[in-house]
Amino acid sequence: MSRSTRVIWDDALTSYDFGPSHPLAPVRVELTMALARELGVLDKVELTGCAPATEDELATVHGRDYIEAVKRVSASGVPDLSVGLGTTDNPAFKGVHEASALIAGASLAAARAVWRGEAEHAVNVAGGLHHAMPSAASGFCVYNDPALAIAWLLAQGAGKVAYVDVDVHHGDGVQTIFYDDPRVLTISLHESPRTLFPGTGFPQETGADGSAVNVALPAGCGDAGWLRAFHAVVPPLLREFQPEVLVTQQGCDSHALDPLANLMLSLDGQRAAYAALHRLAHETAGGRWIAVGGGGYEIVQVVPRAWTHLIAEAAGHPIDPATPTGEQWRRLVRERTGETPPLTMSDGRRPEFSDLSGGYDPADPIDRAIIATRNAVFPLHGLDPMP
């Protein structure tokens, strides 16, 4: 399906490091790239480096006072709680500006490659820092790299950009930055804000004439319910919106093993979502697809396998779920984490779901979440909210 895929990587991307006890452990992306290399996935893509985002580039979505504050913290390591640096979620560390700007630069490099036609798809697994706000760090995120990529695309003349966020946490920073911009359609599928950070992402948050879409799923939702919700909301809206570029945030913390959230997806269900987004990129955005990482805190069993599947899907060479992970990678896992690595690229699930063609069940909390979203935004796009 794909003609060319570029993966943006630099070993220095692992310098985005809040410390040994922080959930956002940089070893998760190190292990991802090592697994993708061992399974031959990186042989199917163009692997390129990146430069840090400049201050002018960062200022397209962040205030210059905020950037200066991050630079001061970066030089001194001294917290500045006025901009959210020095909290438990966002500890201050020397070099935080440089590390954050490099991640932002990687997503900008992905956007440039796709917009200029150098690659059809581009992936930055180190990115996806979707909680960063214009003037504050939030939720492990300092600079909002997906928002920077979108802003860059708009500045180049893109008339419509769609952003689909499948992280278990609401993509609040990206929504905030583009909330009143009808050129950007943001769609976020996440655990209900009643039970999970950041406490936003209700269906009633609809932006400029339906430009913000939120599917708030109940805790405990698994593969079948999540995929039912995805297919009931995302494809109809993308087909109607017809973006020039599709940007996706691929947080894999919706997995049942993730320690910070309460959804129950399997690796196989997540893989089905990657395939669906790939198809939608070709169907609705001329194949132009930029995928970034995001959350994911089960750093051995989930993140490396999930994002290796993502890269393989983007490359047009999906991995057979029965594929062994490889002994060299397993040794690396034991050396770097002391944990027991998974043996294959699957959780052994066969995710299936039913669509809304047979109607919906008002007693089912997942169906209630789906209908709440469709009622809130479908009419604003000229779509019938009822199945």
TrEMBL record:
The keyword Disulfide bond does not apply. Keywords: Acetoin catabolism. Pfam families: Hist_deacetyl. Gene3D superfamilies: Histone deacetylase domain (3.40.800.20). Pathway: Ketone degradation; acetoin degradation. It comes from the Bacteria. One of its GO terms (molecular function) is histone deacetylase activity. The keyword Nucleus does not apply. GO terms for biological process: acetoin catabolic process; epigenetic regulation of gene expression. Residues 22-312 form the Histone deacetylase domain. Belongs to the histone deacetylase family. This is Acetoin utilization protein AcuC. The lineage of its organism: Bacteria, Bacillati, Actinomycetota, Actinomycetes, Streptosporangiales.
